[in-house]
Amino acid sequence: MQITVLKENDANEARVALVPESVKKLVAMNVSVAIESGAGLLASINDADYAAVGATLTSDRPGLLASTDILLAVNRPGDDVIDGLKKGAIVIAFLRPLDEPKKMEQLIARGLTALAIELIPRTTRAQSMDALSSMATIVGYKAVLVAAERMPRMFPMLTTAAGTVPPARVLILGAGVAGLQAIATARRLGAIVEGFDVRAAAGEAVRSLGARFLEVDMGGVQTEDAGGYAREVTEEVMERSRELIAKQAALTDCIVTSAQVPGKRAPILVTEQAVLAMKRGAVIVDLAGATGGNCALTRPGEEIEVNGVRILAPLNLAATVPLHASQLYSRNLTSFLSILIKDGQLNLDFNDDIIGPSCAVHQGQAIEPRLKAALAVN
Ligand code: NAD
């Protein structure tokens, strides 16, 4: 069985799906691993590093695709790649089947099987495969560094011969995986940090990192679903949240926002008025740009300045830390492959509580219910 990794399609994507340490593990599982020459270069991995652990390196993309049983990628491969795969081949990547169902049609037309990394359930058994958390960890960390680089002030309190410099005040909105890592990073840099989330459970996590948790009266409404994700809250709660955030924002040097509700537009937490009342030189890094943004003025993928306040909404921060992002993603994939491959052979067991839910398309048939429904109405 051949597992293949190509150079990612998008020129701005510096991550690679497998790193050498994982190739070594897969080769030991009795499968062959083929890597397109140069696939790891942007993540600081040379062809020779892959070859040293038993991978085959080649520049012959058509030949590589034709003999592929499982294609591993970070992002959904382009149609030219999909067209080059043999019928029945498996594609495993962040495929966005629920966000961009139409774009799954080429995979379906070609009779492929598609396993979407974002559909892997976030259960205890699947924890080592949770690439959403791996990437969110990196994004939360990097968001604070990006903000620190843009700010006209330092993060830590410093006592120098020229006098004392006060610590930066940082506000983190949304305390999921990315938000908590942002809090931890801002704390490590010496800032005074406040966190906000609609889930009460997040309060404990925020406080355990040495930050203050901002509390809003949720009106007795359940704000967390059975999977630990936030539910959409009432407009009244949103209004109370925005008021509290606006008050804190005026005192803050940096806001990192990461609030998301699965399947919905990101909640607007920072209003235009709140931005206009912020200090000149303050920075907002909006991590929810891909789903519309948590700040009313956010322009996804852009950096703008409003009244001296910079608002950034980077869309792929994980790719700016390509070595570690690839390493974590590659480990997540390898853990997933360890249940998909038995004795060097594919074991696509749909009764498995990880494999079943993550399979969006099987041999050209959309089988994930939400994808099926989306394709039926379009
Ligand atoms: P996410 O990216 O969906 O959302 C980020 C955060 O935004 C969440 O904490 C959410 O509560 C918050 N949010 C939503 N609406 C908001 C609003 N109006 N105001 C403020 N905050 C708002 O979440 P995530 O980072 O993927 O994590 C979600 C949950 O899943 C967390 O409880 C996390 O601990 C849990 N989780 C569990 C596992 C596991 O058990 N294996 C793995 C990863 C995450």
Notable characteristics:
single chain, 378 residues, 8-stranded mixed β-sheet, 7-stranded mixed β-sheet, 33% helix, 19% strand, binds nicotinamide-adenine-dinucleotide
Q: How is this structure best described in words?
A:
By secondary structure, the chain is of the alpha/beta class. The protein is 33% helix and 19% strand. The strands form 4 sheets. The chain has an 8-stranded mixed sheet. The chain has a 7-stranded mixed sheet with strand order 11-10-9-12-13-15-14, with helices on both faces. Strand 16 and strand 17 form a beta hairpin. It is globular, with a radius of gyration of 22 Å. The relative contact order is 0.15. Nicotinamide-adenine-dinucleotide (NAD) binds at residues 122, 127, 130, 132-133, 136, 173-179, 196-199, 202, 228-230, 233, 241, 258-262, 267, 269.
